[in-house]
Design a protein that fits this description.
Keywords: FAD, Flavoprotein, Oxidoreductase. The protein is of the alpha/beta class and 536 residues long. Strand 14, helix 7 (238-249) and strand 15 (254-258) form a beta-alpha-beta unit. Helix 3 (97-108) packs parallel to helix 9 (388-402).
Length: 536
């Protein structure tokens, strides 16, 4: 049995912990779990899934073997023809979370045609969030991070076969081994990879790591288990901060170097960044903000010995983790004619790809980390979201639209949700915190690291961040969707820190011309719609 919990949905009720304590554990409000529990736990896990109030637990109840990778499909194929609704030929490029979910939804929606999944990795799709958490601490082995198969998907699997090109006009996907796969419609979901250290020789030193896939996690776990003198982490975003948390949990000395003014600054702004900075320092992290690593140094035998920093100081370390963000896997689309670049692949709200002329394509769809889409709630600005929840939601929208006519297609209007567990605190956000000009602590206390911070932009609520207050997330999602006024005027038990808004201190961004407010209505994807509320 395989288990995965949608931690963007989980609100910390803990029913699963009571019903299956050998599988699920709760650290304050942060849920940890075994992704591949023993067979004797099946009955307990099924009861826990049924009891979950928000239905966040997904299971592979059948545990049937996957078809062997690379079966059938030998040699080039002619362009696909036929209807592009419930039959025909669909190709999914990218076999991770978004691609796997899209395949499941296509079959659920009644697609009965040929379905091919292309992936550059040789293994089955796996869940990435546990890599920087349970795997590094040794709680879960890397091989237990495989995603559950929610339904038996009849598909041709071409794993370990990267795509090298897309012929939009000829409707073909070119593969590295020379084959060409024809399609009626294609979904692009190739995701991202870890951004490497810019100096290849320094990045190749023994002891230097990135963290993106299961192999990376296994290698880093081995280095941490060896008990290094000090771990150096380059970057204090979510991945870097989570790795720092694991290091302190393992009682390892750790130095974090961050270019920005505070951890999590690029995602949540300076107000929450200050709280995150103090949280790290209180747990013994040597945090250096406003600083960069200028060089990684060798001991002369090919091993890392330390680093030089931009402020002239040095750090001795025998393990370093480069956590400088990600690179979108779009190079293979360079000559495709699509609007694809370092920013991702542009698409409309229905996940249809946009070409370099700004025209929407009918047969090419995009989902997951590489998708750059306009969100009505945020002045239709294009955004790319590397979130677990966004990959799932966007894949479902894309799959539905691939087999639907124009009148029955859905827009991707989900409000972004993100979560992180670090230093014993469960951090969750809803909306886009950096789309804000002010923030207020509506509930709780930042000093106690238990609060709700609400963000506003030009008088309306645009986001909320919670520290160990996850049950409020759904409430604030609704406030964002209805363009509720900011600052919020309701009173909660416990109150806010002082109730007064402060400057959000978010990274500088391009600001579009002022326009009408957008309101999202409806609950089911089939009825969710955006409407404009014009200023008087």
């Amino acid at each position: 049995m395989r288990v995965v919990v949608d931690l963007t949905r989980c609100q910390g009720y803990g029913q699963c912990v009571f019903l299956a304590p050998d599988v699920f554990t709760m650290h304050d409000e942060a849920l940890l779990y075994d992704l591949q529990p023993a067979d004797e736990q099946r009955r307990h896990v099924l009861r826990a899934a049924a009891a979950c109030p928000v239905q966040a637990i997904h299971l592979d109840r059948t545990a049937l073997p996957m078809p062997p990778p690379g079966r059938q499909q030998a040699g080039p194929q002619p362009p696909a023809t036929g209807a592009a609704s419930k039959d025909g030929r669909i190709v999914i490029v990218g076999a991770s979370l978004a691609g796997a979910r899209a395949a499941e939804v296509l079959r659920r929606e009644g697609f009965a045609g040929s379905l091919t999944m292309i992936g550059d990795e040789t293994r089955e799709p796996y869940d990435r969030p546990p890599l920087s958490k349970q795997v590094l601490t040794g709680q879960v082995p890397p091989e237990h991070t495989l995603l559950p198969r929610l339904r038996e998907v009849e598909a041709e699997l071409l794993f370990g076969t990267p795509a090298t090109g897309l012929d939009v006009a000829g409707k073909r996907v070119r593969l590295a081994d020379g084959r060409e796969i024809g399609f009626d419609r294609v979904l692009l979901a190739t995701g991202t990879r870890a951004r490497p250290w810019p100096d290849a020789a320094e990045g190749a030193l023994e002891g230097v790591h990135t963290l993106r896939d299961a192999r990376d996690a296994a290698e880093l776990r081995q280095s941490l288990a060896a008990g290094p003198r000090r771990v150096l982490i380059l970057g204090a975003g979510f991945t870097g901060s989570e790795i720092a948390s694991v290091c302190r949990e393992l009682d390892l000395p750790v130095t974090v170097v961050e270019r920005g003014p505070a951890p999590l600054y690029n995602a949540m702004g300076g107000v929450i960044g200050d709280v995150a900075a103090q949280l790290q320092r209180d747990h013994g992290v040597d945090l250096r903000c406003g600083t960069t690593v200028t060089a990684l140094e060798s001991d002369g035998n090919g091993r890392l010995s330390g680093a030089r920093l931009s402020d002239g100081s040095t750090v001795e370390a025998d393990v370093a983790v480069v956590a400088l963000g990600s690179v979108r896997n779009v190079e293979w689309l360079r000559d495709s004619g699509l609007a694809a670049g370092v920013w991702g692949v542009a698409c409309d709200a229905g996940c249809r790809a946009v070409d370099i002329n700004g025209l929407v394509t009918d047969d090419v769809f995009v989902a997951g980390d590489i998708a750059r889409f306009p969100h009505p709630l945020y002045e239709y600005q294009f955004m790319s979201l590397e979130h677990w929840g966004n990959a799932v939601a966007q894949a479902e929208i894309a799959a539905h639209n691939m087999v639907s006519d124009q009148a029955h297609r859905w827009p991707h209007l989900s409000v972004p949700v993100f979560w992180s567990s670090q230093f014993g605190v469960n951090i969750k956000s809803v909306g886009v915190p950096t789309f804000a000009d002010q923030v207020v602590f509506a509930q709780g206390s930042p000093e106690r690291r238990r609060f709700v911070a609400v963000y506003g932009y030009q008088g309306r609520v645009t986001a909320a961040v919670t520290f160990d207050q996850a049950m409020w997330l759904e409430f604030y999602r609704h406030e964002i969707e209805r363009a509720a006024p900011f600052p919020p005027d309701f009173r909660h038990v416990g109150g806010g820190a002082d109730g007064q808004p402060a400057a959000a201190r978010v990274p500088e961004r391009l600001v579009a011309a002022a326009g009408a407010t957008v309101v999202v209505t409806g609950h089911d994807p089939a009825e969710r719609r955006a409407s404009l509320v014009h200023p008087h």
